[in-house]
Design brief:
Structural class: alpha+beta
CATH architecture: Sandwich
Number of strands: 9
Radius of gyration: 19 Å
Strand content: 35-45%
Order of helices and strands: HEEEEEEEHEEH
Length: 189
């Protein structure tokens, strides 16, 4: 009976831990151009399971800030939380959009986009993923495996934007780990 209790603790730890495990921060300031301005050559990021924060300074005008990352087969993007927006940008036309398979033209064509949202509409703490899904109707959240390219642009005004990308392992991966742990604990008896 003690073995079942310890297996349950292991399963609970595996289910709870990934939600808070990784926390990477990528930041770009007004004088620090870390994100590529070229949609065909985005900055490659390596996200982790957990929350991955991006904070970037959007310059006024034609500049795009672009980045890309790959979600492995057993990971999903659960949410994109808007964490920050310079107050004056509420009226600005700032766009956030993305495409799949590592290709994005700037300016993008609607056919290639998996989603877009005008960042002046949602409030901080809003999840952008459902808004992105509704705009193009090409996926249902959560977002699955693939190589994803992201871009932000602001036409009218410069300012800060922040987003948290919440990445989780798929539930099937966790269930397999839990079942394997339970099997091992029974085998030891």
């Amino acid at each position: 009976m003690k073995t079942h209790g310890s297996a349950l603790v292991v399963i609970l730890c595996l289910v709870i831990t990934p939600a808070v495990a990784g926390f990477d921060i990528w930041e770009e300031g007004p004088d620090d151009d870390q994100f590529s301005d070229d949609c065909l050559s985005p900055t490659l990021l390596s996200p982790e399971v957990g929350f991955n924060s991006i904070r970037l300074w959007i310059s006024e005008g034609e500049e795009y800030d672009t980045w890309a990352f790959t979600l492995p087969q057993d990971w999903t993007l659960e949410a994109i939380i808007l964490t920050e927006r310079t107050p004056g940008l509420r009226e600005a036309e700032a766009s956030f959009f993305f495409a799949k398979d590592g290709f994005l033209q700037c300016p993008p064509s609607v056919e290639e986009l998996y989603g877009w949202v005008v960042l002046s509409e949602p409030d901080p703490a809003d999840d952008l993923l459902p808004l992105l899904s509704e705009s193009a109707d090409r996926f249902d959240p959560p977002l699955g495996a693939g190589h994803w390219v992201w871009a932000v642009r602001c036409d009218d005004q410069a300012g800060w934007f922040g987003m948290d990308f919440k990445i989780s392992p798929e539930p099937s991966s966790l269930l397999l780990l839990g079942a394997g742990s339970l099997w091992l604990s029974r085998r030891r008896r």
